[in-house]
Request: fold
Amino acid sequence: MAQVRSLFANRWFTWLAGLGVLVVLLVLFREQLDFLGQALTELRDAQPPALALAVLSSLLSLLAMAEVMRRLLAAGHTDVSLGEANALTLASNAWSTSLPGGAAFSAVLTFQVQRRWGASVLLCGWFFVISSAISTMWLIVIAVAAVLFLGAEASVWSLAVSFAVMAVAGWLVYWILRNPQRLEAWTRTLLPRLNRLLRRAPDAGVATTVEQIRQLDTVDFPASAFAVTSLNSLLNRLFDATTLWLAVWAVTGALPGLEAGLNQTTVMGVALAYITAKLAGSAQVTPGGLGTVEAAIIAVLVATGMTVVNATSAAIVYRAISFLLVTVLGWVVYFLRYARDGFSGPRQLTARREGRNTTEVA
Reply:
């Protein structure tokens, strides 16, 4: 185990590991690389002003997500600049979209970098839970709005129940944050009982869990901060959906409005296509949902008024910007900012620096 940790602490290994991932991906998914050629063709034929705005919208979406990270960490008195948060958002997004199941690698990178910033384990977990809960709630809100305004046949009640569940989950986490003493009392009572059922020592893990709970006292997250964080999470979703809206404009030469025209979809049609794409890409059978996401977008856009040709072009333009461009940019940031330390934790990083300093003194 120590040898494995030493290997991951080696800066050359962590740098080459990221490069190796890219090489393996190119080999495994070389049959799908024709998407690059299609994307370049569609981008060349698209409306330049719409393309420029789509790129800006996609980058603003990630910037809003970075602001969510910055504010959630600031609640635990771990202050980072928006630039640092944005760099990590780009790099972790690159890992997430480049591998089947890449979200796990993205989470590990995010966790380790946040730990190196000085965030506690509890604060890192707080970030993942709260940011995911808020983001999912907004995704469901957009879905409900699209379904209601389109008048489509869909299970609005199932969406409403999902929203309610996420709202309750968010409220529960917020309540726990405001009541650490009660949570500590429950832990001291319930955890020993659970340990007995699992045939472990009654006090196993109690001290560690209580120590983590007490760190909640260091998290200061008033209602006003929650509101601003939620707004930024909403902007993350809206800017991403706007990128698809602008991609349709780039292809057709007309912005989708409230009413469908000849071979044209509507704003809500775009919103429904966006939600469907996010659901289709959640499994990530291929990197970034390549193939499944495009199919989902095309199907909905055609169903809401667009021709197959225009819908396909719009889907490719959207993915060329929100997937290819942003992923490439994320890998550049990763190699420039994080590849040296990679997935090393704070202890490994400190040990490495101490070893380097010892060598320099010797």
